[in-house]
Specification:
77 residues; five-stranded mixed sheet; 45% strand
């Protein structure tokens, strides 16, 4: 089966802003389009993962979803 024959899935995406975590996390990571799959994001960064949880407050209509940093874990070797 070649790449064109493989089924694709589409997920709704939202604008998301990541708050907290490493101060040097690039803007391209902090401000992003994210698949709407759940309340948590796990972002690979510097030999580990930064974990973010979605703020339950929806904010104003049209505003990006806010995800707040909650923890860092190391990549298992």
């Amino acid at each position: 089966m070649d790449e064109l024959d493989q089924p694709t899935t589409t997920h709704a995406t939202i604008r998301a802003v990541l708050q907290g975590g490493p101060v040097d996390l690039p803007d391209a990571v902090r401000f992003r389009q994210e698949a709407l799959e759940g309340p948590y994001l796990k972002v690979p960064y510097r030999a580990g993962y930064e974990h973010f949880e979605r703020d339950p407050d929806p904010g104003q209509a049209g505003s990006p979803a806010i995800y707040r940093w909650v923890a860092r874990t190391m990549i298992a070797e």
